[in-house]
Amino acid sequence: MSEHAPRKHTEVAVGILLKSNGEMLLTSRPEGKPYAGYWEFPGGKLEAGETVEQALRRELQEELGITIGTASVWKVTEHDYPHALVRLHWCKVFEWQGEFEMREGQSMSWEPWPPQVKPILPGAVPVLEWFAEERGEPFDPATIG
Ligand SMILES: Nc1nc2c([nH]c(=O)n2[C@H]2C[C@H](O)[C@@H](COP(=O)(O)OP(=O)(O)OP(=O)(O)O)O2)c(=O)[nH]1
Fold first, then answer.
1. CB 84 less than 6 A from any atom of ligand 1
2. Atom 27 in ligand 1: residue holding the nearest Cα
3. What are phi and psi of 141, to 5 degrees?
4. DSSP 6-62
5. Using CB atoms within 10 A of its CB, is residue 17 exposed (0-12), middle (13-18) or buried (19+)?
6. What are the coiled-coil residue ranges (predicted)?
7. How far apart are CA 107 and CA 26, in angstroms?
8. What is the pLDDT of residue 1?
């Protein structure tokens, strides 16, 4: 690729699973992936021909063993990592079925606000800023990650 060729975006579907008590699901990135051990919202890359919702449903089935209800895109962000330029399609998810199974050897944690696990993947930080805004609270990214 030429030095000046624009980088192609990698499209990623990400689920923000929310319990009625306000807790959100974070999962750790498995060994072998970039940023292994960092905490993130579960999801993954779109495959050819998939919508965001289809990709999210497939990824959460594959990685966590659950079947999600409807999911629609809430916000879209981009993050430029050394390994990829990603476009993240964030979906809030309120309904799912099945028992959680960590099929990729990752960990999961239902986190209160503000989340306590560290470090958090840089591309996931905007979500925490939106939650802080929704709550009308100041948010200091230095306190996480
Ligand atoms: N799942 C997820 N990915 C995120 C978040 N924030 C963020 O920047 N990303 C980035 C990291 C990765 O570059 C990309 C997701 O790709 P991935 O490698 O985890 O997806 P995948 O499961 O489809 O991976 P694989 O099939 O290639 O192993 O999006 C987040 O909160 N959740």
1. yes
2. 45
3. -60, -20
4. PPPEEEEEEEEEB-TTS-EEEEEPPTTSTTTT-EE-SEEEPPTT--HHHHHHHHHHH
5. buried
6. none
7. 8
8. 54
pLDDT for the residue numbered 145: 57
Taking residues 51-59, report their average pLDDT.
98
Could you tell me if the CB of 41 is within 6 A of ligand 1? yes
Average pLDDT taken over every residue of the chain: 94
Two tokens, residue 22: 């306000």
Q: Tell me, using a 6 A CB cutoff, whether residue 33 lines ligand 1.
A: yes
Is the shortest distance between the CB of 88 and ligand 1 below 6 Å? yes
From 40, 41, 108, 117, give the residue whose CB has the most ligand 1 atoms within 8 Å, as the site to mutate.
40
What is the Cα 128 distance to its own chain's centre? 11
CA 89 – CA 37 distance, rounded (Å): 22
Calculated CA dihedral for residues 96, 29, 41, 128, nearest 10 degrees: 150
Neighbours of 1 (CB within 10 A): 7
Instruction: Judge if the beta carbon of residue 124 lies within 6 A of ligand 1.
Output: yes
Report the binding-site residues for 8-oxo-dGTP.
29, 40-43
